[in-house]
Design a protein that fits this description.
mainly alpha; about 110 residues; about 55% helix; 6 helices
């Protein structure tokens, strides 16, 4: 946001809302772009053959690992499942690359 504020000629003292600056420059929110990139990587991993090193390494769970106290960390696969649910996308769509790209596309304002 600091780069966008500088681009528009504003400083933090001007107290201009981030949404107003993003709308003026025409940039999508960073949360949506991060979700888009995470889902694009998920599609890449899912389209790999099951014996691929990438797929076996990313999707394999390690059992009997003692976690620390407190709230457990959000894992990559849990965040992908949450993103799929939030965006209302099914996992079966991942096999059709063009349809998957259209489903996860974040349009620039």
């Amino acid at each position: 946001m600091r780069m966008l504020q500088w681009f528009c000629g504003h400083t933090r003292r001007d107290r201009v809302w981030n949404e107003a600056i993003r709308e003026r420059v025409g940039v999508a929110p960073i949360e949506e772009k991060l979700t888009q990139h995470r889902l694009r990587w998920f599609g890449h991993v899912q389209r790999r053959p099951p014996e691929a090193t990438l797929r076996s390494g990313v999707l394999k769970r390690v059992d009997k690992v003692r976690r620390g106290r407190g709230r457990p960390k959000l894992t990559w696969d849990e965040s992908v499942k949450r993103d799929l649910k939030d965006w209302d996308i099914s996992e079966e769509l991942v096999l059709d690359k063009s349809a998957w790209r259209l489903a996860i596309n974040v349009p620039e304002p």
